[in-house]
Design goal:
CATH topology: OB fold (Dihydrolipoamide Acetyltransferase, E2P)
Low-confidence stretches: none
Number of strands: 10
CATH class: Mainly Beta
Order of helices and strands: EEEEEHEEEEEH
Number of domains: 1
Strand content: 35-45%
Radius of gyration: 13 Å
Strand order of the largest sheet: 5-4-3-7-6
Oligomer: single chain
CATH superfamily: LytTr DNA-binding domain
Largest sheet: 5 strands, antiparallel
Structural class: alpha+beta
Number of helices: 2
Distance between the termini: 24 Å
Shape: globular
CATH architecture: Beta Barrel
């Protein structure tokens, strides 16, 4: 369960496709198409991920995007295809980390 979002609303980890960070707000993109955003944060994305998702499950594929490793259907050097068909970019500097975590998860 994920907590601390919109008045402590609980989300099932499996319902989250990815998380993005823009203008100090974290938005959870759910499999249902719903978007759930945090209030404006006073911390950066890295610190937010460590505090709220330090146990793993999400891998950072871009400066401002972390994907649910279990939601990945296909991984290439340029992009990730998620369940439901959404395409997320993978930065060159993060590809190796994403690929390693994905392989650890799959095998």
């Amino acid at each position: 369960m994920l907590t601390g979002i919109q008045a402590a609303r609980e989300l099932r980890f499996d319902d989250v496709l990815y998380i993005d960070y823009r203008n100090h707000v974290v938005t959870y993109h759910l499999i249902s198409g719903e978007l759930i955003s945090t209030p404006t944060l006073r911390i950066g994305f890295t610190e937010y991920l460590e505090k709220n998702h330090g146990e793993g499950g999400f891998v950072r594929c871009h400066e401002s995007i972390a994907v649910n490793i279990g939601a990945i259907d296909k991984l290439t050097k340029q992009e990730i295809s998620l369940r439901g068909g959404e395409i997320i970019p993978v930065s060159k500097s993060r590809y190796t980390e994403v690929a390693n975590q994905y392989m650890d998860y799959r095998f």
